[in-house]
Predict the structure.
Amino acid sequence: MTIEYGMKDGMLLWVRNPFNGTVTYFNDVHRKPHVFGLLTNPQHPAALRPLAPHDLRDEMERVRHACVFCPGNEAMTMEEVMRVTYGEMYESTAMPSGFHGDDWAIRVVRNIIPRVPEECTGGRNESYVIIEDGRHFLPGATGLSDLMWSGVLPAQHYYHLLRIAAAVVRRSLDNPAVQSVLIRKHQGRESGASQPHIHLQAIGADRVFPDVERDMEVTARHPHIWHESVALMRECGLHIEEGDGIASQWSPFGKFGRHFEVIALEDCQPLPDIPDTRLRLFAQYTHRLLRALGTAPYDLEIHHGEGIPLHLHLHGRRYVYANIGGTLNAPADVAENVVAPTRDIVRLLALQTAEEEQRWQG
Ligand SMILES: [Zn+2]
Ligand SMILES: [Zn+2]
């Protein structure tokens, strides 16, 4: 038998694609609520016409009331496993309006649907949701589609987010049945997000994720592959920014054409073992890229492990098939419809972020 798969009670649990090695897990999708349309349906009358301020307030209140990730609805999620409060991240003078120091700002709960069935991970649900912020809408939102997004969070908030993600990875790896933990994110409905409230996912699995396994195999065979890749992208003008041993670049080595990477070249440990100062720098480079990409839909995946540099893959999800067949777009329009993260924009953001960092540390 060439095709590998796992069964339980006559049901398929997972199957490996014999052609590209990826594994698909099967879940009871009916348990998963898809509320995107309900909350931010662009066809919803509320989304079509500009709302009078008090109507907008009512509509926003209705959405927050229905959103399982919004503060006040904690009982609607699975058990909470971690939280960070605003007081732990923000100066008392910089507290987001309507929030207090002891309100949670980042909250980790188990995913209602384990992305990998419990049967594969020692009978425990090892899928987590990391709610990135208590705010559902942007401050000053003028419509229901003005949602909070990761790049708009302050730099130190984003660092805390990755720190919590690392803690979740450590926690999941404590389960002896878990071999690797993936950090993943979808921004925007087009990328598959089922909840509009900003969140990351952590997924513990009973094997090293095939993409990470491939990273490891290739790195073991060609230890200089990452430096080589960064050098080549630099030479081709596809790098975005570089410093501190970290490179952001557009790279053709993604699943789809509009693929960006942030690579911490010398940080070759699993995410929980990355020293804090290095994680903070990785967070800053990532945060600047996210800010430059704006609100366009993307998916993001953080890869880490012994022997491979900490890195993330980000795929712009608009026009994903634009370069199928190996026809690459010229660098000038690399980011078209993902909002151009030109080096100038990123440099500007770098200055802003440095300022934020200084304020935060000073
Ligand atoms: Zn919400
Ligand atoms: Zn990778």
Q: What stands out?
A: Residues 211-361 form a domain with the HIT family, subunit A fold (CATH 3.30.428.10).
